Automatic annotation (TrEMBL):
Keywords: RNA-binding. It comes from the Bacteria. NCBIfam families: RNA_bind_YhbY. It comes from Bacillus pumilus (strain SAFR-032). This is RNA-binding protein.
Amino acid sequence: MLKGKQKRFLRAKAHHLSPIFQVGKGGVNDNMTKQISEALEVRELLKVSILQNCDEDKTEVAKALVKGTKAELVQTIGNVIVLYKESKENKQIKLP
């Protein structure tokens, strides 16, 4: 689990990132969680945007992504979810 200080640090790092995944009408599926997991292994920190046509509630989408990718939820701002997962081989972010 991330501490408050670590979440603040990650939020600051994520501020300038652009969302690289979008959750739309289909919601969260296995293929999407697999791709997000692979992207997290490379980047460690990423944003996922929730499109307006998504049928699921954004908190449900966030829970599904966290469960599917085993990542940490850093924050949800509007329709954007910020996820963090420590990389096994490609560690770049050093948490405070």
